[in-house]
Amino acid sequence: MHNGRKGKEVSSRSMASKTQVGFIGLGNMGKPMAKNLLKHGYPVIATDVFPESCKELQELGAQIVDNPAEVADQADRIVTMLPSSPNVIEVYTGPNGILKKVKKGSLLIDSSTIDPAVSKEMAVAAEKMGAVFMDAPVSGGVGAASSGKLTFMVGGVEEEFTAAQELLTCMGANVVYCGAVGTGQAAKICNNMLLAIGMIGTSETMNLGIRLGLDPKLLAKILNMSSGRCWSSDTYNPVPGVMEGVPSGNHYQGGFGTQLMAKDLGLAQTTATNTKTPVPLGSLAHQIYRMMCARGYAGKDFS
Fold it and tell me: Rounded mean pLDDT of 19-33?
């Protein structure tokens, strides 16, 4: 791609649709997402702080480079998928960060789940370099990342949404525009706070019913035809043996880690404090998941 394009020529990105796409962060989520870009015929140039994470992608034909700046030097559309706010700040603004070599008019899509305030900071820093930053956190977990069925919640300049959508639909089934930068993160954090509260409520309810002598499968069946029904009761039941194909039926392996849920609830807590919003159940859920981590369940599914 030619260097130094003006902002008004940004739309030329979508014209050359199968040009190189950068991908930074090849972890549990990033790797299957990058694989789906390759499957859709996009040449991928990638990097990860752990070189061994890059091997599989390299074997599938991706070009691997040493750091984010090198990715930005060669690709003008970049997706990042990183564990937390400090990683995002480092990858974008660090000494070997994207913004060191970013081309004017580049589209930068961050699918990490981080503090919306950090997304806004990154957008301002990118804009100074003539690039466009959008936050696009995901819901759906590792399974949906592999099957290309993620939901993306996108925040950023609306005029750029179509360009982002083109790439994101290769990796997800739903791509929803939420508003200005940071609103994608806001939607994700709100969903996961409710998910945690619902899972704890489902677990308490199932536990009480079992101790009252009810068969767990029967209780789940009754809940799921009654007003107490929720996603945690009908799709992701936390009691072993009630449902097949969920982590509770497999020693709570895989799925969405307790540590990640605790992190997201920490973000909910921070944003609630910053906006002076009372979230008593969200706060309690945060503490319960932190206790689970402290007791050795950090790597187990949040159910």
Answer: 95
